[in-house]
Amino acid sequence: MAARSLEIGPAGIRAARTIEILRTERGLAQRELAVRVTAFGRPMTNTMLSRIERAQRRCDIDDLVALAQALRVSPLALLHGVQAV
């Protein structure tokens, strides 16, 4: 089986930027948001969140849904970007 590419595409980069923007607008530290995400049943550390925000780690669909819940937006808002929020 071929190795999966780790390259993050435009939608992933847009979601990463949106997550960071919304987190900072809400006055949340990465650690605080990671705790909220974990509370929604998706274990996440602040290091994982940092890597997602810097587009150094893929944000899978379960991460995206939990992050959206923790930020109180729809998952689509994270995919569409800040202008959609």
Commentary on this structure:
The protein has 85 residues and is mainly α. It is built from 5 helices and no strands. It has helices spanning 10-25, 30-39, 46-53, 61-71, 75-80. Helix 1 (10-25) packs parallel to helix 4 and helix 2 packs across helix 4.
What descriptors fit this protein?
single chain, 85 residues, mainly alpha, 5 helices, globular
Map the helices and strands.
Blueprint (H helix, E strand, L loop, with lengths): L9 H16 L4 H10 L6 H8 L7 H11 L3 H6 L5
Strand content: under 5%
| Uncertain spans | none
Largest sheet: none
Output mean pLDDT. 92
Helix content bin: 55-70%
Looking at the structure, what is the overall shape? globular
Q: Please identify the structural class as seen in this structure.
A: mainly alpha
Number of DSSP-assigned strands? 0
Radius of gyration: 12 Å
- SSE string, helix = H, strand = E? HHHHH
Q: Distance between termini?
A: 39 Å
By DSSP (H or I, 4+ residues per run), the number of helices equals 5
In short:
This protein has helices spanning 10-25, 30-39, 46-53, 61-71, 75-80. The protein is an all-alpha fold and 85 residues long. The model has no long low-confidence stretch (mean pLDDT 92).
